[in-house]
């Protein structure tokens, strides 16, 4: 699993984005051990008003996410976990003035096991 997450964080966009608006993400469709993780091609988010797009550099692995994967939580189809992300701002939505492209940020978000949040 760690190799999958490392690949997600360190692959360049030109190697992993097959279309202009897709990206790699890692998640699962059933509870279990780390072997339940799979790679998915999902839509890349677009920043709306007062939002930024962040390219994932690193993620935090926490006990809550481990417990959810093991069976103590919700299950999506697929469920893309990840709340704590460090990354680089790549796009800025309208109304954003406090962040700039290229700036390093830390987020508390959803679906952080992905190339962009």
From TrEMBL:
Transmembrane region(s): none
Protein name per the record: GroES-like protein
Domain Alcohol dehydrogenase-like N-terminal stretches: 50-109
Keywords: NADP
Keyword NADP annotated: yes
Organism encoding this protein: Lentilactobacillus kisonensis F0435
Origin: domain of life: Bacteria
């Amino acid at each position: 699993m760690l190799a999958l997450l490392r690949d997600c964080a360190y692959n360049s966009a030109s190697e992993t984005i097959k279309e202009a608006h897709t990206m790699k993400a890692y998640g699962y469709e059933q509870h279990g051990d780390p072997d339940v993780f799979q790679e998915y091609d999902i839509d890349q988010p677009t920043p709306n008003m007062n939002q930024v797009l962040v390219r994932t550099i690193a993620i935090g692995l926490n006990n809550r996410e481990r417990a959810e994967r093991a069976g103590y939580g919700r299950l999506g189809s697929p469920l893309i976990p990840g709340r704590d992300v460090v990354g680089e701002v790549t796009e800025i939505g309208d109304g954003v003035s406090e962040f700039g492209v290229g700036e390093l940020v830390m987020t508390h978000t959803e679906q952080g096991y992905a190339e962009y949040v």
